[in-house]
Amino acid sequence: MIACLSLSTLDFLPRRNTQTTFKSSFNSEDALLFLQKCANFKQMRQIHAKIVRNSLHQHQVIVARLIRLCSSYKKLDYASFVFQQIENPSTFLWNLLIRAYIVNDCPHRALLLYNSLIFEGVSVDKFTLPFVMKACLACSCVDKAREVHGFAVKTGFSGDVYLDNVLMDLYMKCGVTDDALKLFDKMRHRTVVSWTTIIAGLVIHDRVDIAQKLFDKMPIRNVVSWTVMLNGYAKSKKPEKAFGLFAEMQRDNTKPNEYTLVGLLMASAELESLELGRWVHDFAIKNGFEIGVFLGTALIDMYSKCGSIECARRVFEKMESKSVATWNAMITSLGVHGHSEEALELFEEMEKANVTPDAITFAGVLSASLQNDDLEEGRRYFYRMVEHYGIKPTFEHYVCLSEMYSRAAANI
């Protein structure tokens, strides 16, 4: 007789390991695939919950993808929360979160994170410091930038061209041009970007003569460097030199772009030369340039400043696409040339076209009302600006309104 097996006997039989038999149904590849197909922040949070339940929240590639998504959804607090769950985040992840703060206009948070990175002794790489330098630039922290540059020298990253270019750009934009020039002189390797950055900075700070000397020494020039120098002359006290430089540019066989032509139009306006402005317009048409928003707006401004409101109007009417700046240029031009009623009619057209006006638009509108000596009309536009569009009045708006009140009082 075969003995019956009791429950106690079964307890001694070997058991199958269910953990090794059944494989997890959600692995890292699944997580990355889900995140790739993620459509919104709510979905991302649901996927993240599944990632945590399956103990994948330490997977650095998955965390990198989560931080990128949080950045695109502008959910920086959640990105920080995801980052803090990592026990030993790589330098790549530190860089990724620093960059997320910068692209989402949170440079101070980026600098605080960088301070934490240094405090915890994490090794930086060639991408870390340029990101941090951009954060310094965004919040105009020159002293912090000098500190970061000093750290770069100590850690052997001082010869990095990209880092030097960003620092040079920061010095220029913060007004410390001498520091930028010293850095440029010390650079062992210079790219076209290096040369263009220093020249553009000098041009902005009205040091066109020094910019020209450096421009003459450039080993290689491209359309950007030519245009930067040309625009410098267009905005300087020597706008005629912009055309001389353009002639050199053509002899160099460098093809201009629309920014080059806009610079020439600015120079024409400064010289009040309708002849030169028309020449630039003809050049644009003959060489196949589309009269788009940027070039078209510059043409309207040039024709207005050179006294031809009719040419300005024709350019405006032919433009298929118009920006707020385009409408502003035409409204202001009409007002300047004494066509106040047309300026106000054009403003009404602008609203009907569902183009949202800005503070500059209303400066032109109020100036037109001032020309009409119509206080009630001016008050109506002023309150529409404040109450309907939520635009905070500027000094120019108040001056127009004040002048209207003064004229109304004088007529009583």
Describe the structure.
- By secondary structure, the chain is mostly helical.
- Helix content is 70%, strand content 0%.
- The protein has 25 helices and no strands.
- Helix 11 runs parallel beside helix 13.
- The longest helix is centred in the C-terminal third of the chain and has 16 residues.
- The protein is globular and about 75 Å long.
Task: Summarize this structure briefly.
This protein has 412 residues and is an all-alpha fold. Helices cover 70% and strands 0% of the residues.
Q: Categorize the overall geometry.
A: globular
Count the beta strands.
0
Q: Biggest sheet, open or closed, and with what strands and sense?
A: none
- List unreliable stretches of 5+ residues: 1-23
- Topology as a string of helices (H) and strands (E): HHHHHHHHHHHHHHHHHHHHHHHHH
> How many whole angstroms does the radius of gyration measure?
31 Å
Query: Please, what is the average pLDDT?
Result: 90
Question: Termini, distance in Å?
Answer: 128 Å
Strand content: under 5%
Helix content: over 70%
